[in-house]
């Protein structure tokens, strides 16, 4: 098995932290992990920016789901300071293909862009 570059390994660790319900429910933690210019295209097709996603995830009325289960996570350093991850998630029968871009800056690696696309049948599933 090929060892991951340090940049990719660190970004994978950060991405997995973002899937943790405790991190997702903490505005201070999210603020340190999301780039100020963060954008997301969610599974619903809704566009999110940093402020709206932090407010939504940490609102008292928000139902806190359990952790998302991640699989097939792969990463590549596109250029120094920019890593792309692709992976799948599953939560209560809902599945999504996901892609994230992480940028390295003064505060370390921060999530810059994320997109999630729901799927039912997966042509890449080899099981």
Notes on the protein architecture:
This protein has helices spanning 6-18, 21-24, 27-33, 50-58; strands spanning 34-41, 47-49, 69-79, 82-91, 94-105, 108-119. It has a six-stranded mixed beta sheet. It has four helices and six strands. The longest helix has 13 residues, at 6-18. The model has no long low-confidence stretch (mean pLDDT 89). Helix content is 26%, strand content 44%. It has one domain: Nuclear Transport Factor 2, Chain: A. By secondary structure, the protein is an alpha+beta fold. β3 (69-79) and β4 (82-91) form a beta hairpin.
Question: What fraction, in percent, of the residue positions are helical?
Answer: 25-40%
Terminal Cα span: 21 Å
- The gyration radius over C-alpha positions equals 14 Å
- Based on Cα principal axes, name the global outline: globular
Query: From the 3D coordinates, which CATH architecture would you assign?
Result: Roll
Report the average pLDDT across residues. 89
Any idea of the CATH class?
Answer: Alpha Beta
Give the count of structural domains: 1
Decide which structural class fits the backbone.
alpha+beta
CATH topology: Nuclear Transport Factor 2, Chain: A
Identify low-pLDDT runs. Answer: none
Strand content: 35-45%
* Strands side by side in the biggest sheet: 2-1-6-5-4-3
